[in-house]
Amino acid sequence: MVDIAQEVYLKQLRTVFPDVSEMTIRRDLSLLEELGYAVRTHGGAVSINKFKKAGEDETEYIIRQAENVDMKAAIAQKARHFVEKGRSIYLDAGSTVMCLSKLLTELKGCTFITSAVNTALKLASTDNSVIILGGTVNANTFACSGPEAMQMLETMNIDIAVMGASGYSNEKGFSVSSMYDARLKTRIVEKARKTIMLVDSSKIDRDKTYTFCGLKDINIWVCDTMPDTDILKKCEENNVLVI
Question: Taking the model in full, what pTM does it have?
Answer without folding.
Answer: 0.73
